[in-house]
Amino acid sequence: MSANVAAAAQAASSPDDKAAISVKDLRKCFGDHEVLKGISLEAHKGDVISILGSSGSGKSTMLRCINLLETPDSGEVRVDGELIQMKRSRDGHQLPADIRQVERIRANLAMVFQSFNLWSHMTVLENLVAAPTHVLKRPRAECLEQAEALLKRVGIWERRNYYPPHMSGGQQQRAAIARALAMNPKVMLFDEPTSALDPELVGEVLRVMRSLAEEGRTMLVVTHEMGFARDVSSKVMFLHKGEVDTVGEPKEMFARPPTPQFKQFIANFNK
Amino acid sequence: MDFDFYLSTMWSVLKALPLTLEIWFFGIAFGLIIASGLTWLRASGYKFGEYFTRAYVFVFRGSPLLVQLYLIYFGLSQFDFVRHSPILWPILRDPMYCTIVAMALNTAAYESEIFRGALRAVPVGQIEAAKAFGMSAFTRFRLVTLPIALRLALPAYSTEIILMTKATALASVVTIMEMMGTAQKIQHDTFRPIEVLTCAGVIYLLLNLSIARLFAWVEYRLSPHLRPPPEQSQQIKPVPEVL
């Protein structure tokens, strides 16, 4: 008991060893259906964590609870050691206590979506500049310069003045990754970034993600790309029916699946 | 064909165009303000707001504009408190103001429905992206929701504006000598309905043609993302789809 208290106090106060993301006992129901049944996760700086699981296992919901796109029913989320404050509404639902805090934290957690979600009425360049100038209040000239550099990096600089509907899915997703990078985020959240792409376009997006992992960015990646999970990530987390089934070192996990569920899961992929 | 008569009628009716445009402009301007308020009330999530806007739309969309205009012009002055009110009476004793009030109240009902539909049609994913990048509710609305919703609302809104142009003709029934009122007077004086009404009709047609082209141009300028991508349009010259 006292050890727990001491550990908790240490976790709250020690600045050197704070996790980039720390999730404790996250729970979420949609109606009667319990999607997350108490999930915990810790990501340190430089971690690339692949979150695997069959559809309906709660992996996307978990990711969306971290930046409060979904409000968890209970549990706590800390970003860089800072706890996201929650309160209860009169009908017992949990709500963010301070929306300013949520907005500030979201700005540090850039997200890449399955369906890109680029703002369709803005050019690629405007997409990259919008949030840094309006949320981070950085000077526009500086943002433009960075945006062009980022677009060169993901290989779509020539399309900087295109509108999203005029680009292929792979180009749109690379633009979306560049948009996320333009926020200089502490952690990047990827929600099935390649699931909406044609098979021949998956490679170009994965190459960009791999280069991000190699430069030591902290990434949480919900994915169905087993190759990426095995070869690029530093940790793999497998969710099954709203619970953490297993967490481990990727090569080890894929070589010797620790649980029957995970064994079954990767067997289905290798068919 | 009596060209001189056509020309003189045309000229007389045209002289009333500024008055028509005045009613039109203030009607849609105040209508837009009321409609924005109604849309905000409806979207605010308050039960009262929803019931109020529903009732408003039910009343002002469900009854004829002519009835509303008569009620405001002839009806409201029956109440003592209206006649003795220092604010209401200067407005409601003036047929011009009454027409503008009736038009604004009426068009606001339609416009609030147009805006409500446009707001609901904004793709959720794009709003979510704005949230995920830490934008505040206001920034989100200004940078993402509003620009997208405006583009979605524009075609239906332009139709409503054209309907309002035609509705200005109703002002003639409360003694306003705008284009329709002027035309009717000439018709009564000369007993030549075909010539006179043709002239008025042609001017309304040309007026609405310009309004439609203006909106088509705005729509074209605002939606480059819905046209073919740049390299395709270099081969095929973009033809603005006006009208």
Task: Break the fold down into its secondary structure elements and pairings.
The complex is a heterodimer of chains A (271) and B (243).
Chain A: H1 2-13, E1 21-30, E2 33-43, E3 48-52, H2 59-66, E4 74-79, E5 82-83, E6 86-88, E7 94-96, H3 99-108, E8 109-112, H4 124-134, H5 140-153, H6 169-181, E9 187-191, H7 199-214, E10 218-222, H8 226-231, E11 235-240, E12 243-248, H9 250-255, H10 260-270
Parallel strand pairs in A: 3-10, 3-11, 8-9, 9-10
Antiparallel strand pairs in A: 1-2, 1-4, 4-5, 6-7, 11-12
Helix pairs in contact in A: 4-5, 4-6, 5-6, 6-7
Chain B: H1 3-15, H2 17-43, H3 47-62, H4 65-75, H5 80-84, H6 88-92, H7 95-121, H8 124-132, H9 137-167, H10 179-190, H11 193-222, H12 230-235
Helix pairs in contact in B: 1-10, 1-11, 2-3, 2-7, 3-7, 4-7, 7-9, 8-9, 9-11, 10-11
Low-pLDDT segments of chain A: 5-16
Report the order of strands and helices of chain B: HHHHHHHHHHHH
The H/E string of chain A reads HEEEHEEEEHEHHHEHEHEEHH
User: What structural class is derived from the secondary structure elements of chain B?
Assistant: mainly alpha
Cα gyration radius of chain A (Å): 19 Å
Tell me about the largest β-sheet of chain A: 6 strands, mixed
Count of distinct strands of chain B: 0
Oligomer: heterodimer
Rg of chain B over CA atoms, rounded to whole Å, is 22 Å
Q: Indicate the mean pLDDT of chain A.
A: 86
* Shape estimate of chain B: flat
Instruction: Sum up the overall morphology of chain A in one term.
Output: globular
Most extensive interface between two protein chains, with residue counts: A-B, 34 and 27 residues
Proportion in helices of chain B: over 70%
Strand order of the largest sheet of chain A: 8-9-10-3-11-12
Portion of residues within helices of chain A: 25-40%
- How many helix segments of chain A? 10
- Can you count the helices of chain B? 12
